[in-house]
Amino acid sequence: MNKTAAITGLAPVSAIGTGWQEFWQNLTAGKTGFRRLENLNLPKRGCQIAAEVSNPPRKILDAVNPMPRAVELALHAARLAVEDANLTNDIDRERVGVVVGIGVGNQDLVELSLEKLQAGERLSPLTAFRTFAHAAACEIVREFDLRGAVQTVTSGCNSGADALGLALDWIRLGRCDVVIVGGVEAEINNSFFGAMTAARALTTKFNDNPTAASRPFDTRRDGNVPGEGAGFLVLESIEHAEKRRANVRAKLLGFANRAAGTRPPYDPFNPVFDTQPLLRTMQAALKDAGVAAEEISSISANGSSSVFYDPLEAQAVAELLGARTSAVPVYSIKGALGQTGAVTPALQAIAAVLSIENETLPPTCNVEQQDDQCPVNLVTGAAKQHQSNIVLTNAIGFGGFYYAASICGKN
Amino acid sequence: MPYPQILQIIIDEIHAMTRNGGAPPELAGKSLNAETPITDLMLDSLGKLSLLSAVEDRADVMLGEGDIKNAKTLGDLAEAVAALI
């Protein structure tokens, strides 16, 4: 069994660009994608900003044929990924799978449906199909007339990472030759902002300065910036990619996710600070990939601008790297894109591939003074020339209950 | 809103929670002041979050993830709220 999968297609749909060329150009230029939101009933003292995608633009939900924002974003990204991988019509559709990671689902359509029900109006028959979390995966299957395995993974912010792990397993087990895999999230709605504000997970102090709001590992960080987007990749078995002479851009070498075990309830005054679950996850991913920690060239951090989880991650990374901590560059794309739920790990994977191809690491935006509780070699200010052969990518699930890590390698 | 007023709001809300079952009844007769450790309130996780929400509503502030990370006493909490006003 070949343990690796070829990565042959990349398709980010993000607040800093749609398509990998625009995405990479803006990511490495240090551009951020945040803006102040309008026309939403947001908690008055809470977060008022988000990373919103402009291409494709947001549309008013059609009452008869409602297409939730997440489905729209996922479809757009899947089309771009298929195009980028140059998957042609002669492919064996029984051997092409689809895995979609999505965290909060199609809340926009749920909200619209509630409004209509409360107004005594009839719902579209399509509402049932389109509100469930599996809708994006099903619409991708329909779009490309695919007949292989199809699955939706929902594990909060880690959904995109776990989707990649599942797709890798399908390739390894021979269940598919090709998997269109990605993460999608559409969080810009009243219910999401209301719930996350109550959980105190979002930034509150940068409403008047949105571009500076997401500041991973910086002393002035004050919480996550939400958003929307999609990121899709095409994974293939090495044999299949070679047979059709595909452009193998990099390889997915390994993956692991781990639960943290029994945890005390969240205490806002005294949250549990335990680096071990993430450390175990990173070590498991390295083992799965057959790679030693000494071989890591760069790290794409979860780094979500969280007051609590940024130092936890940095200290876990330092434990993993030991004496090499100062030698291995670490960056977070969330300074540019925020904590966009399920999509971020997929975008991290895309950025990891592009960093390998371009021998460049993107800067972590908005780091003015690195927190001394975050002892990692952070890429800040400007993009850094750096040859990466092995990239470790981290994802931390909401509440610290679960973790994921993946390993990408040079082709 | 001055610090003493914020501290009184916090104490009032804790007493209100004891009356409506949101906090242990033993707190009802307990004297609370700025030096009272938050751990002495014997509030569970939900109780602490409920207290914060009530104080936010009364003081018209939003406590972010990092605003209360160093708060050990009711006085610390009052100072954190005061810093946001």
Q: What does it look like?
A:
The complex is a heterodimer of chains A (411) and B (85). Chain A is α/β, with parallel strands linked by helices. In chain A, 32% of the residues lie in helices and 21% in strands. In chain A, the strands form three sheets. In chain A, strands 1, 2, 5, 6, 7, 8, 9, 10, 11, 13, 15 and 16 form a twelve-stranded mixed β-sheet that branches. A two-stranded antiparallel ribbon of chain A has the order 3-4. In chain A, strand 1 and strand 2 form a beta hairpin. Chain B is mainly alpha-helical and 85 residues long. Chain B is built from three helices and no strands. The radius of gyration of chain B is 12 Å and the shape is globular. Chain B has helices at 3-19, 45-59, 74-84. At the A-B interface, loops of A face helix 2 of B.
Indicate the percent of residues in helices of chain A. Answer: 25-40%
Order of helices and strands of chain B: HHH
Low-confidence stretches of chain A: none
Rounded mean pLDDT of chain B is 91
Major sheet of chain A: size, sense and barrel closure?
A: 12 strands, mixed
How many strand segments of chain A? 16
